[in-house]
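Hey, quick one: can you model this chain's 3D structure?
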Amino acid sequence: MSVTIKDVARAAQVSVATVSRTLNGHGNVAEDVRRRVLAVANDLRYTPHAAARSLSSRRTQTLGVVLPDLHGEFFSELVRGVDQVAREHRLHLLVSSYHGRPDEQVAALRAMRGRVDGLLVMSPYAAAHASIVEELAPALPIVLINAQSDAPDVLSLSVDNYGGAQAMVEYLIASGHRRIAFIAGPEDNFDAHERLRGYREALARLLPDASEWVLPGAFDEASGHAAGQTLLSAAQRPDAVFAANDMMALGCLFSLVQAGLNVPGDIAVTGFDDIPLARYVHPTLTTMRVNIAQLGARAARLLITRLSVDSNALDAQQHEVREDEVEQRRSEPLRPELIVRESGVRRGGGA
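Sure thing. Here's the predicted structure for all 351 residues.
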């Protein structure tokens, strides 16, 4: 027969309530009692019954994660950060993707209702997520990643894409580059829009006589490669290329090197994100580092704090105190860090 929570309580000589508080990570259990209960539960190989726990606590012990896609190093790093925090709190993840199609996003989000305690949503398509987020928010805590919402109860965390793009342009200009091309991301993507805005404003501020040079892109290697081919056929080539993400930068880099150009001697190439692959290509990629796993971890902690507020705020005063905890978790946008590698060293060879 399977071991029950009553068996653990009997063997540890404590109440069933004490076993429950211990296994659910509540702090109001003496340390020696906590250790004894955990040791007994381990010895007896006790596993809480998920369905019973869900019925008694009205919790699924699961966080939902809805992303534009699951392919690529960015999303794998983001989920890794979320998963690390979830495991620390003995929570599971239910991960879904709408494959970059805004029309499928609503279905993916609605499918999470009743299956998760809270939602982490990355949605670069502002118009697509607005109505469904407002629909779900009253009953389901939601944290948006790199997106905004007018719904009062929806929290958000973001990357300073605008500031990061400005910093890269500032670096390239300080390194002696004057003809700086930019490979943009999807037109309806929030991150891409902010990075393009940063490029344009930094260029106008620091090189007012220079013309912007924007090529279309889709945040993938193929579009970066196509942009590289376009630059190769230009009457006058740029002396630097700034791609709105690393995948496009790598595609462009391959195109230029394949054509026999020296990077960065002939053209410098830089990206944005600092995916793990960026340090293993040749030449290694200069980029703006976004700690992607940290972004996922911070979003997960914010959601878990919100869940704690919602479940423990028994009166107005306590709710106000716990709302302060949420505000402490919500911080300024994550600031990217300039990482200088071989593909974008300063002209003259120095870094």
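One thing worth noting: The longest strand covers residues 62-67.
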